[in-house]
Amino acid sequence: xxxxxxxxxxxxxxxxxxxxxxxxxxxxxxxxxxxxxxxxxxxxxxxxxxxxxxxxxxxxxxxxxxxxxxxxxxxxxxxxxxxxxxxxxxxxxxxxxxxxxxxxxxxxxxxxxxxxxxxxxxxxxxxxxxxxxxxxxxxxxxxxxxxxxxxxxxxxxxxxxxxxxxxxxxxxxxxxxxxxxxxxxxxxxxxxxxxxxxxxxxxxxxxxxxxxxxxxxxxxxxxxxxxxxxxxxxxxxxxxxxxxxxxxxxxxxxxxxxxxxxxxxxxxxxxxxxxxxxxxxxxxxxxxxxxxxxxxxxxxxxxxxxxxxxxxxxxxxxxxxxxxxxxxxxxxxxxxxxxxxxxxxxxxxxxxxxxxxxxxxxxxxxxxxxxxxxxxxxxxxxxxxxxxxxxxxxxxxxxxxxxxxxxxxxxxxxxxxxxxxxxxxxxxxxxxxxxxxxxxxxxxxxxxxxxxxxxxxxxxxxxxxxxxxxxxxxxxxxxxxxxxxxxxxxxxxxxxxxxxxxxxxxxxxxxxxxxxxxxxxxxxxxxxxxxxxxxxxxxxxxxxxxxxxxxxxxxxxxxxxxxxxxxxxxxxxxxxxxxxxxxxxxxxxxxxxxxxxxxxxxxxxxxxxxxxxxxxxxxxxxxxxxxxxxxxxxxxxxxxxxxxxxxxxxxxxxxxxxxxxxxxxxxxxxxxxxxxxxxxxxxxxxxxxxxxxxxxxxxxxxxxxxxxxxxxxxxxxxxxxxxxxxxxxxxxxxxxxxxxxxxxxxxxxxxxxxxxxxxxxxxxxxxxxxxxxxxxxxxxxxxxxxxxxxxxxxxxxxxxxxxxxxxxxxxxxxxxxxxxxxxxxxxxxxxxxxxxxxxxxxxxxxxxxxxxxxxxxxxxxxxxxxxxxxxxxxxxxxxxxxxxxxxxxxxxxxxxxxxxxxxxxxxxxxxxxxxxxxxxxxxxxxxxxxxxxxxxxxxxxxxxxxxxxxxxxxxxxxxxxxxxxxxxxxxxxxxxxxxxxxxxxxxxxxxxxxxxxxxxxxxxxxxxxxxxxxxxxxx
Length: 1019
Known about the structure:
Elements lengths: L1 H5 L7 E2 L4 E2 L33 E8 L8 E6 L5 E6 L3 E6 L4 E7 L8 E4 L4 E4 L3 E5 L5 E6 L6 E6 L4 E6 L3 E6 L4 E6 L7 E4 L4 E5 L4 E6 L2 E10 L4 E8 L2 E9 L4 E3 L2 E6 L13 E5 L4 E6 L6 E6 L3 E6 L9 E4 L7 E6 L6 E5 L3 E7 L70 H5 L2 E3 L2 E3 L18 H13 L23 H7 L17 H8 L2 H8 L9 H13 L9 H8 L2 H5 L15 H35 L11 H6 L32 E5 L5 E5 L27 H6 L1 E9 L5 E8 L2 E2 L16 H10 L2 E8 L4 E13 L3 E5 L6 H5 L39 H17 L4 E6 L5 E5 L26 E14 L5 E9 L4 E6 L2 E5 L1 H5 L6 E9 L8 H5 L2
Parallel strand pairs: 38-41
Antiparallel strand pairs: 1-2, 3-31, 4-5, 5-6, 6-7, 8-9, 9-10, 10-11, 12-13, 13-14, 14-15, 16-17, 17-18, 18-19, 20-21, 21-22, 21-23, 23-24, 25-26, 26-27, 27-28, 29-30, 30-31, 32-33, 34-35, 36-37, 36-40, 39-40, 41-48, 42-43, 42-44, 44-45, 44-48, 45-46, 46-47
InterPro entries: PAN2-PAN3_catalytic_subunit (IPR050785), PAN2_N (IPR048841), PAN2_UCH_dom (IPR028881), Papain-like_cys_pep_sf (IPR038765), USP (IPR028889), WD40/YVTN_repeat-like_dom_sf (IPR015943), WD40_repeat_dom_sf (IPR036322)
Protein name: USP domain-containing protein
């Protein structure tokens, strides 16, 4: 009904595309017809919800085509439990029952909207702008009526079973005879007829667009019984029940037409013979201007008023009090509520909006509303009766229950064939594509790989019964079988039996004579690093010679553990004392190195854990040795002098070193862990402020001088720089592992440069994040990583004295000292893809389709495997072979020896020793003077891989260690807790397997005074 009203009133706004008149913005807008500047916006009015509303929403559905068209007509079926809906696209859909299950859906016109729908016994009549369509309820069309008199039709009214009355925005009514399908023209004086309603008697009310209402007798519709003006501007809607007529509309004001916030009630008995009905009508105030009206057929004197914004009010026509109204809200999804209808039982209300939704309301306690009192059964499609559906593998089904047709003479069914025809045989699938195995990444027992797209979707190839396919499958099975994890790399789990000896299991695990370490205690993940430190003779001799009076000293416990391993005679040992002391160190707990008693969780990152443990243990041993040396010196001074020396206030670090010993030799103030700092004062005490900073990665740094404060970078190289030129304090550990460098910091704001010395005990690899470096070594992937990590250049916020705030600062390191033992942390699990490049050296390269002749942007320096672009000065096959060889050598293979050359400017050049020319001289290593600032001179060192800690990606993950037990014979052994087996050098240096990732590497020089390990481990 609303769509008719939208086209009912003439205004100054004329849309040439639709050739129709519309309301102005001051009247009722039409969002589906008006666009651009003609579209108006609705502001939802505030209304207090009434919890005592009689009706509540029962169902809400998006109609067919609701995403494109709004609802233009809706009506309850008078004969069945159906709701009929028509939209602006000419489509009609019906819904069954209170759950609004879709029943039928069909198109009645290709473009015109459905203006009105009436239901008859044989079907429905759907009215569009220029046509009347008759269809049965199942959706089959019966006929379509068109006439020259139908120019802009709007409403329908059923006079009898054989006559229909049609009105529209034109100067005539049409009376249609359904038997002969001929129309009769009835001229009218009003400006069209937008609505036709009757109250059950002989009068029918015809509402025009200009606010006039004409009462006609349905027996003689050509004559007008009475005509009066209901509203001064335009009419919105009307309805009749008996002798009562209700209307709503717009009134004319100074600014234009304004919606009236009330409903006018007329008594048609008092209107006959009078020119005006002003004294025979009364109004009912509503909270929101009404747009649509409808009487409740089951109640006398009650009506429903619907506003455009979805406010619904139940009116009592005989009671004018506003508080007697029952008000509720329809969720119109911020659109205009356009149509409404009431069922004949008044148990259901249906509303349609321009967003394409239908909303069904029913009384609060009536969840199964009935549309009609005596509805007939709705006809549904018959169920197709077919053969029973049975699974092919169902052995319990009785096939005799299915009737079989008769066969001709001589034919047999399959159930009477011999048994050999029913033998089960499965097709064997082909082997996995080598390209899949090449790019596969394992997550526990599950492998993930990108689809090579060599087969179609949902296609599984099978091996045919031919000799060629069988031979090819056998060859691929032997050549490209996935590499399993060897047993001696897996976690050793020995179940001790107290009733019988366990010597047999231990003998199977270790037949080398080297002692192992049990992993039955918590925090035993560090057994691999303990084996590496034990088989490093300089570290071992230092710890064996260390003694102090501290209660929980990790250096002492490591020395005791090494002494026990020397005297064990190859029997397994336990690190109980060391792990007990390790748990008491608060810095270890702060770094997350102490695991719970239940053992390591599968979610714990063992790679990052063992690298943090490596940095922690080197720093801890260094400071414990240094602190013991200082206390011994102070004790000697106190023994010689009768009174302790005076200490200046302000230097807290030196004040702690002057603690007074107790009677048993221990000191009253315990040592507290700080980060590595070699530049502390030794003889003089300078008065300056002592600061402390807790860095983001958990390391605590005590810095001297307020000007040295800077935020710690989120990297593995933990260092503490200082500007003061003082004597450097070293221990045996710092002499072996310390990497000295000058760090130049330049503020990007004021360009102020500041140089400071710093020392680190472990070098952390910094992997590239972008394209490969131009001019870099094509073969030296790992070598280039070490070079870039030693002389690291990065940008980080730091404190600037000149700017007096944290500013972006570039940091560049200049190496001044190379250590005898180079400890390298290889990064976390995110860099595993770096070590996987260049793997599968035996798998032939797959020729990719769609190759391009476009030159590669990296040219000869391209290291991308399977690059499809053109590379100059080399053929395609040679390029692919070179890339595969270079990638394999530079990524997944560790160099056995490194030749590190220290330049005069602090930069380093690292090459594989095999790549170095034999004619080049070897310059001995230059050591800086202790009493002077280190002056960088050109020198070089030869480093040889001594040990490596590896993470095995098993379930659970495991940490093992490679140790070179004999330098003369290049003999390597794998230490896996109690399992110790000899391995080849190729297995140590190759890291292309998916289950093996390097964690910590130890490279040593001949100057480290490494004695043969056979003599070191001999008791």
